[in-house]
Amino acid sequence: MTSDRVLQTLLQSADPSIRWKSRVLVLGETRESPGIRELEREVRRSPRVRTLFARRDKRGLLRGIPNPYTKWQGAHWVLATLADIGYPRGDRSLFAMRDQVLHRWLAPVYHREFEATTAAASYGKAGVPRMRGRYRRCASQQGNALYFLEKLGIADERSDALAERLLHWQWPDGGWNCDRNPEADTSSFWETRQAMLGLVIYAERTGNVAARDAARRAAEVFLSRNLFLGRHSGRVMNKEFVLLHYPLYYSYDVLGGLKAMAEIGRIRDPRCRKALDLLESKRLPAGGWPAEQRLYRVSSGVEARTDSVDWGGTSKTTPNEWVTADALHVLKAAGRA
């Protein structure tokens, strides 16, 4: 099946978010057009979004989930999902969840820091440990919040504080890491991807030069490793990096890396070539791409690493609409579709 036929199949999907990804990310339709605005209203009314919102109370908070970072059903993850599936921007009904997330990630503890020389000592105080000149902080948390609040059009002046923390914690090689082994001196793909994306979209709105420069340096963490290969060994860095997932949450794979490069305008860098080749090699004979591994279980209850909606599961022979839409997006952006 040609890319055109795969795209036509996606454009006829029963899920409006798949049609949104196809029209906006692959075909390049503007979100300001009447047709896309109507499609985003359909996304807002969709069964998927209704399920994500099923626990919302009159205040707009999720009943029974006081921790916004509860994996994967807390407010942090619901907002991250909405930002990726074409939910309309500027929805004031999301403010309560937004405020809950910001209250968590801008708490005073993240402005408290201390020196530590051992992993054990790094857990001895509340705050952000600094070990051998590097802040050990899970920047994907503040970075993802910055990204999805900007993406959803519900960011306010508190984005400045999120960006300031990310800039403050950035490592010399351009990324971030929360590894409390004092010997750790290389940034983490998991922590860096979302921090980079958050700073890019923040810089686009504000014109903040420091944020733009920090994101550019963060991109080198990935590009210098061809998005999945050891810089010196040339071998696959992590077996999960070469498996396709959706949703990716805070994890990493080559498709997530390529999506990030497309978003920051670096997808045509020659160092993306091997990752693009790998992605193309995973295309199924009948067309489309599979989800090769999943990072969630579906549950109506709130259990660890469960999602309230199904994203299509995994298969070796059947394409996953979400993975396929994102794969077509990055191939189109790279000039390969």
Overview of this structure, please?
With 337 residues, this protein is mainly alpha-helical. It is 45% helix and 4% strand. The chain has a 3-stranded mixed β-sheet, with no helix packed on it. Helix 2 packs antiparallel against helix 3 and helix 10 packs parallel to helix 12. The chain is globular, with a radius of gyration of 20 Å.
Task: Label this structure with key terms.
mainly alpha, 3-stranded mixed sheet, two-stranded parallel ribbon
Structural class: mainly alpha
Uncertain ranges: none
**How would you write the strand order of the largest sheet?**
1-2-3
Tell me the Rg in angstroms. Answer: 20 Å
What is the count of β-strands? 5
Number of helices: 14
Biggest β-sheet: count, sense, barrel?
Answer: 3 strands, mixed
DSSP strand content:
under 5%
Mean pLDDT: 97
Distance between the termini: 13 Å
* DSSP helix fraction: 40-55%
- Spatial shape: globular
What are the secondary-structure elements, in order, as H or E? HHHHHHEHEEHHHHHHEEH
Summarize the structure.
The chain has 337 residues and is mainly alpha-helical. Helix content is 45%, strand content 4%.
Question: What secondary-structure arrangement, pairings included, does this model have?
Answer:
Blueprint: H1 3-11, H2 16-26, H3 34-45, H4 47-52, H5 75-84, H6 95-105, E1 113-115, H7 119-122, E2 128-131, E3 134-135, H8 139-151, H9 158-169, H10 189-206, H11 209-223, H12 254-263, H13 273-281, E4 297-298, E5 306-307, H14 321-333
Parallel strand pairs: 1-2, 4-5
Antiparallel strand pairs: 2-3
Helix pairs in contact: 1-14, 2-3, 2-14, 5-8, 6-8, 8-9, 8-10, 9-10, 10-11, 10-12, 12-14
